[in-house]
Structure formats: structure tokens, C-alpha cells
Amino acid sequence: MMQLNFWAITVAAVVPLIMVFIWYHPKFLGKIWMQEVGLTEEKMKGSNMGFAFVFAFILSLLIAFFLQTVTIHQLGALSMVGGNHLNAKPSFIAFMSDYGAAYRSFGHGALHSFMAGVLFVFPLTAINAMFERKSWKYTFINTAYWTVTITIMGGIVCGWYAPDGFNWVTQK
């Protein structure tokens, strides 16, 4: 069975926390975003940011875990044999021996995650924003944040692997 890289998942889950400091900083897009959502600095000071960051990290772990399925094609191939290589036919073992580490790079993971940002995050954010009566400025600030963030996260989870991470293919 393919091993998950929990270090990659954990590091990727830190990315949204770093990006939120940059993206929503008052010197970048923070003032515009606060205006679009109707927040003031006083309202921001009254919130429990410690809880927000801990819970955001937990949710970010889920995002990083999911991004593996978007960026690592070998997981899709493995799902064809029920998630257990011991159920595989010799043709699957031969295929994975030949192509087991193909497209495992930061760039490939970033590309697929960027596409998810444009084709999945943008529509979700825009639909919510329309029903919430939010502006397009709000939509683009949040969509761009998540698209940049998951692009980096996807690059990390796809590109960070042990070169021998596919030795399970030849083991029966």
C-alpha cells in the first residue's frame, strides 16, 4: 500500500496560516478585504485568534490530505485495485513499476491545484458571494487567496516524496 507522507501534509497545512498573514495584512489586501466584509479593527481585536488558527490548521490538514487525490495520480491508479496492491494483477504491478513516480513534482502538483482553484474554488466562492450579496472584489480577493494557497500546498504534497516510496509495487 502506498505510504502517505505526513510530513508533506503537515507542512502543506501550515501554508494557509502563513498566507493569511501575507494576503490579509493591511499593507497588502487586508484593508480592502475588511472594507468588503464590513469589519473594523475593533471587531477584529475582540475575536479569539488562537482558536481560529488552531481550528484553521486542523481544517488545513483536511485540505492537504484531499489535495493528494488531486495531484498524485498514483493514488487514482491504486484505487483501481481497491487501495491494496496485493489485489493487483501483474499488469498493474508492471505499469506501476514503469510509471510509479511519474509526475511527482512540485510543478505538477502546483498545476493541478491551480486548476482546482480556478475551476472549483472560484465557482464555489462566487456562488456564495452572490447569495451573500458580496462584491466581485470580495470574490476575487478570497478566490485568489485560496488559489495561490492551494497551488503551493498541492506542489508540496505532490513533490515531496521519498524516491523509494513506490517499492511496494514490486512486493507481493
From TrEMBL:
The chain crosses the membrane at residues 6-24, 51-70, 110-131, 143-162. InterPro entries: DUF1761. Keywords: Membrane, Transmembrane, Transmembrane helix. This is DUF1761 domain-containing protein.
